[in-house]
Amino acid sequence: MQARLRFAPSVQDFKYNKKRVRLVSQDSYLKDAAKGVVYWMSRDQRVQDNWAFLYAQRLALKQQLPLHVCFCLVPKFLEATIRHFGFMLKGLQEVAEECQELDIPFHLLIGFAKDVLPAFVVGRGIGGVVTDFSPLRVPMQWVEDVKERLPGDVPFVQVDAHNIVPCWVASDKQEYAASTIRRKIHDRLSEFLTEFPPVIKHPYPSAAPAEPIDWNACHASLQVDCSVKEVTWATPGTAAGLAVLESFIGERLKSFGTDRNNPNRAALSNLSPWFHFGQVSVQRAILEVQKYRSKYKESVDGFIEEAVVRRELADNFCYYNRNYDKVEGAYNWAKTTLKLHAQDKRSHLYELKQLEEGKTHDPLWNAAQLQMVHEGKMHGFLRMYWAKKILEWTRSSEEALKFAIYLNDRYELDGRDPNGYVGCMWSICGIHDHGWTERAVFGKIRYMNYAGCKRKFNVGQFERRYDPHQLGQ
């Protein structure tokens, strides 16, 4: 907070980069009789370090209007379970408390945005709506649906508050690989990788305060699977996420460069759940981590490559490729090679239930699957091995991709995310990769095997840690 205040007293005193913003509606002018501005929070569930929230406050301050925050809680979302909804709701509770301290009413609207948000806008005489950005088809459809139902004279804008370089600025097309987007992103970092001004106590109060939120009733309104339990290692919310960032910098960053591909070493940031729910800004993480470049250059550069280049490449792929989670979305060379090897004999064939329960012949794969089921997070190196083996042990690349995405989205805390879809597409369909030596089943898709893992780390140690008997299965 001190860094933000040193940078600018508020967003009004800061030169806001309008390239982060794009107009969704036809009309761009706030009407004279407006009684407020709304930030429709969706992907970026935090108050500070949030370019969408800041833009909404900037509009409200400029027009001397009250500012409202709305979150539309849908009863179910893809394969999300109570593990995900529980994490999200606890984070939103923190957002609501923070908003209250800043005199900004926080409204939790139950239902799909198209059904509840336009009515809220009309009922409160709202003059403008700001939302954040996701490249995935369901949230993009939500934006389209709201656009159609908002009054024609209410301007509606979208701000990319998730990526450092806004997705539509970084590139205007689907990039082939990290090598083709890396320079484009690095060239724009000096422009976009700035400190944030603070969201301040809002000086224009609303005449109609927010309804008190019954968080237990919200929980009860969900129509989700409650058999996938919430995890204990990860505390939801921005404060907890920033504490994980602090522990990463203090304890694990020094090893990130050398040990991040070793599942037995504590070298990862572990920030992906907080990044996924937008509870911690990636930009904040980079601002803090890069202060240590002179001390841990290899680690800092590696972290920037993964958290900025690779993550923003994933958003680019999902934004420009509507088949981001289907074999049809793969490059032609990959579709051809998978088709040529579709009839190859598989050494093992497993049903989804066997995979889900970690009951294959491969103890390393089983251990990785059980880590994900119990902890909601699988080590990044093993996520690649895990998905590639699903290709090897299922009837087709289509089935492999379907199973991998289902399991990832059901158990990983950061499931239903561009990173997850691209990870599965890279492993099974060669996205952002090139052809390798041809072999059975895989064709020219990059191959990984148990022996290769043994050369990289102590496989037995990891298998023992996630032995089914140890985990009480």
TrEMBL record:
Reactions listed under catalytic activity: cyclobutadipyrimidine (in DNA) = 2 pyrimidine residues (in DNA)
Family: Belongs to the DNA photolyase class-2 family.
The enzyme's E.C. designation: 4.1.99.3
Organism this protein belongs to: Chelonoidis abingdonii (Abingdon island giant tortoise)
Organism domain of life: Eukaryota
Keyword tags: Chromophore, DNA damage, DNA repair, DNA-binding, FAD, Flavoprotein, Lyase
Domain Photolyase/cryptochrome alpha/beta positions: 35-167
Top EC class for this record: lyase
GO molecular-function terms, A-Z: deoxyribodipyrimidine photo-lyase activity; DNA binding
Biological process according to GO: photoreactive repair; UV protection
Known function: Involved in repair of UV radiation-induced DNA damage. Catalyzes the light-dependent monomerization (300-600 nm) of cyclobutyl pyrimidine dimers (in cis-syn configuration), which are formed between adjacent bases on the same DNA strand upon exposure to ultraviolet radiation.
InterPro entries hit by this protein: Crypto/Photolyase_FAD-like_sf, Crypto/Photolyase_N_sf, DNA_photolyase_2, DNA_photolyase_2_CS, DNA_photolyase_N, Photolyase_Class-2, Rossmann-like_a/b/a_fold
Cofactor section: FAD
UniProt KW DNA damage keyword: yes
Keyword Flavoprotein carried by entry: yes
SUPFAM superfamilies: Cryptochrome/photolyase FAD-binding domain (SSF48173), Cryptochrome/photolyase, N-terminal domain (SSF52425)
Name the record gives this protein: Deoxyribodipyrimidine photo-lyase
